[in-house]
Sequence to fold (239 residues):
Amino acid sequence: MFHARGLLAAKYMNLIDLLLSPDVFASTLLVLAVDRIGQELFDADNDGRMRAPEALRQEFERQFGVKLPDDNLGKLVAAGAVMTSDALYRSLPSFLFTVHGLLGDGTDWSYAEPIEAEDLAWAVMEALLIWPPDEEDLFDPQIVAYCRTILQREGLMSPPAILSFAREEAVYGDLGSYDADILAEQASRTEDVNAYIEEQQIALLQQLEDISFLGCTADALLMSIRQELQQLAGAGAWT
Fold:
């Protein structure tokens, strides 16, 4: 009996640590919320309005006994928005809201620094893991232009496939040594982005395993994200 209680207490503390951690993924928070509270937590009201972030925080606190930090609340809000609407594709403000939220910039990210390429790539990937797009889902031209600007700013001519919609191919003529050095630097930067995405993918898989151990039973959402991760890995989609 006491051993069982000890295991339950340890699981509870591990869960609390995860919910408060700056390293918790939006996907992980979403799976936990759907498991313990239900997908209706993110349903819009009769006027089409989403539940206010503070209302989400209060419900989360009631269920888990912990107050989500602002950054993690932003992750949960953004993940819920991805699951319940296609706004991610429709406008640049909605896209930025989602990306900043998934990255842990809170629910008010107007102060945030410009997004770096690896963060942009991971946020887009995580959004598509949460809710894989339909074939007709295409990013608004303003979103494409924004992502292209980020890639150009960092000199990424060959970004990960997840950002291929914003790739701008360049045609090179006779390359001198200076041009070759630039291309080598670009290739190294792209490798850094690819490595970061792979590290994030492994970390997310580990978190999903951890919450399964903690008793999470949101099988449909959990399995969907796992399957998407495995398919991406098998296809080398982050390289």
Residues 1-8, 170-178 have pLDDT under 50 and may be disordered. Residues 47 and 101 are 23 Å apart (CA to CA). Residues 2-235 form one domain. DSSP finds ten helices and no strands in the chain.
